[in-house]
Structure formats: structure tokens, C-alpha cells
Amino acid sequence: MFEGEPPARFASSPDVVRQFCGYCGTPLSFQSPRWPGEIHLLLGSADHFEGLKPMGHAFCEYQVPWFEVADDLPRRRSSPSQSST
Description:
The chain has strands spanning 8-13, 16-20, 27-31, 40-41. It is mainly beta. It has a four-stranded antiparallel beta sheet with strand order 1-2-3-4, with no helix packed on it. Strand 3 and strand 4 (40-41) form a beta hairpin. The chain starts with 7 loop residues before the first strand and ends in a 44-residue tail after the last strand.
């Protein structure tokens, strides 16, 4: 939930909408028809994210080779809403 003024919106490319703080410019979210029904929130924009628990890892095809994740959460090559794993 956003507090204060509603986020500013910017159509950064065809069919893509990004929301950001109109005061300081902090990026808040990303929406695209590529991932219908999803709003991607930028974790760095949260005040209290310690209560959020990950459900899995997405876009693992872009993971740099030296980064290792030490958990057993599901890993997907793309977004959870897309059919490929």
C-alpha cells in the first residue's frame, strides 16, 4: 500500500507502465502485458520487507554464474505466470 500522494505513472515503452514517487523519483512498480495479472514491485521501495517471504526465484536464465542461492525454493527460467520453468 502506498501512503500519501498516489504514485506517478510513466509509459516507458509500448504497453509498459512504471510507477514511481513523483517527489523523489524512487521507482516503485512495473507492469507489462508480457506478465498479465502481475505487478512487479521493487523490493527496495518497501519500508518493511522483513515480513515478506519469497515463494520462488524467477528469471534464473539471467542469473550470473558466480551467484549461488542456498535454498530449495522453486526456480523458473522466466516469470511464474509464464508456462516455462
